[in-house]
Amino acid sequence: MSILEEILLHNKVFVEEKEYERYQTSKFPEKRLVILSCMDTRLVELLPQAMNLRNGDVKIVKNAGAIVSHPFGSIMRSILVAVYELNANEVCVVGHHECGMSSINSDVILKKIVERGVAEEKIDTLRYSGINLHKWFRGFNDVEESVRHSVEMVRNHPLLPLDIHVHGLVIDSSTGKLEVVVNGYGTKEKTPSL
């Protein structure tokens, strides 16, 4: 049985037995918080439990490394939608120790891409078009610094109102222990970094 077939079989029972009822909530985050977190599998249930979050409490945006790499990319757009359309008034960037993005090597990824059948010509076309794949696949060396950088990208965004608090945390992916990197309650002024 394929993964999709397993999912659909489970879903049929889930709906028939009305298991969805315990998850019903509105689209507005009860705690008025949007979280940017890493997509790491260890955080799927650990992060909400470690932060005392239930279904409906927050909006969660996930990507590789909890990185805001571009001020006008999809991550920042999601955060702004959460603020303006879903009434979030705080943002929390949560990185984690032992993140795969701390050891990512763009040369290795590009080699794997070719090994999986993507033609070298396609990669060359992207390079000639000005796409720096090494930069695009780059991770980070220091999770705290990466969280600080993402907090600054969010906090200094020209479309983010000044009254939005932007925090930065790092979670231990084994124990769930949270460390504060940036306490957003103390910062109201934007710094010229964009």
Automatic annotation (TrEMBL):
Q: Gene3D superfamilies recorded for this chain? A: Carbonic anhydrase
A Gene Ontology molecular function term for this protein is: carbonate dehydratase activity
- Name the CDD domains on file: beta_CA_cladeD
Query: Which residues are Zn(2+)-binding?
Result: C38, D40, H96, C99
User: Which EC numbers characterise this protein's activity in its record?
Assistant: 4.2.1.1
Q: Which of UniProt's keywords are assigned here?
A: Metal-binding, Zinc
**Keyword hit for Cytoplasm:** no
Pfam families per UniProt? Pro_CA
Q: Which cofactor does it need?
A: Zn(2+)
**Catalytic reaction(s) noted:** hydrogencarbonate + H(+) = CO2 + H2O
Q: Origin, by domain of life?
A: Bacteria
User: What InterPro entries does the entry give?
Assistant: Carbonic_anhydrase, Carbonic_anhydrase_sf
Return the cofactor note field: Binds 1 zinc ion per subunit.
Indicate the family of this protein: Belongs to the beta-class carbonic anhydrase family.
Q: What is this protein called?
A: carbonic anhydrase
Organism of origin: Litchfieldia salsa
